[in-house]
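Action item from last week, closing it out:
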Amino acid sequence: MASRFKLVFAVSLLLLLLDFCRGSIVGVCYGRNADDLPTPDKVAQLVQLHKIKYLRIYDSNIQVLKAFANTGVELMVGVPNSDLLAFSQFQSNADSWLKNSILPYYPATKITYITVGLEVTESPDNASALVVPAMQNILTALKKVGLHKRIKVSSTHSLGVLSRSFPPSAGAFNSSHAYFLKPMLEFLAENQSPFMIDLYPYYAYRDSPNNVSLDYALFESSSEVIDPNTGLLYTNMFDAQIDALYFALMALNFRTIRIMVTETGWPSKGSSKEKAATPDNAQTYNTNLIRHVINDSGTPAKPGEELDVYIFSLFNENRKPGMESERNWGLFYPDQTSVYNLDFTGKGAVDMTNSGNGTKSNGTTWCIASSKASESDLQNALDWACGSGNVDCSAIQPSQPCFEPDNLVSHASFAFNSYYQQNGASDVACSFGGNGVKVDKDPSYDNCMYLTTRGINKTAASNTTAMANTSSSTRAEVCAWIATFCLMTLISFVLNLGNVAVASI
């Protein structure tokens, strides 16, 4: 009896380990509203080539589901708004869909989420009232085949579900959606499903450039926005929008629901009124986003909190209506060439040579502090670089090689250059709100050696480790402890079985 208890306990801990130790993930949205897209088989090869492990699709297309069988890529499958009426009215419709569209391909094709409806509050026919009944019927269908714990059911929303998002602590849901949001939140809490949101700082900047700075939208701000109610400091809009949702959930006493970002990104091309839609900005946003997510940085209100994010989108989609930017969110062209290069692991310096008008250096340029910058601006930028910017600033501490001369310009120059080299040596990585300047003369002196891109590349692995935050390190330690304990328990159980067998002989 004791041995059996140990086995059950060890297996339970292993399941906990798998969930706890996974960390935040970055996926990509695979829309197909375009001409001349590669076949799903070729898309599966492209996705694996770029080490993309999580993919969101917007329907249950059979060819796509077949193509991703045995690839290890986890899929989020969508139920379109046009199917909500049928799914909400009759349980048999949900049963049939699961039987014909999902089960034949599962588990060879890994399906982990089903999203029921797409931003229903934004759709002209407003099918909000149909969403929760459809979700309930799909959950019931999953329960019938024992998959309700392996495949989670939720629905995606736009930020329009909030009536207020700033300051974050004042985040509140739009009361006009209460009739369907309350039962949905109860469903999510009861079934431990995430609240799925589509977030686009790009639109906030495009539509209100006088109130939102470009650097703040791109994760590049060296200054902070303070929430007057909580005192929390925000260096990017993404975190502020996420926290607005958390505060909105807490205001309704839903404290256990986690948030998942099912769409975010930045367009690489736009109309004359969309000057921020460039390859450089798209690459900067998505690069910073990936690093922010995989480091499990969390947000000011939820530090260290895991946050799964899906980048929109895999391909440019030329059939989409609207402004020019709507057709240019892709990471790839239909011919499978990159619109700009992106490191999906977030672990190395990103190659910016193919990013349109990007200007990646070959290791012969450096970034230093501008002599025209004010002391307050330099101090803010230095604090940011050594904090959120993940720069190792130990060399400018007292008694260290770059402490002397002990002045703000010298210390900021060292930190600016380190951030610049670690982030691809691009123009945008030396901006610091206009306080950084690129130079072609090595600023190194005495024993104070300024980094170069070549040096960063040689030590990428160690730098990545140094950039990991405390929560990631703590999680790794706990994971290692649990894994060791479970392994020892299982070995003990197997040995006990052997001893029992020998004794019985």
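Closing note: The chain is about 40% helix and 10% strand.
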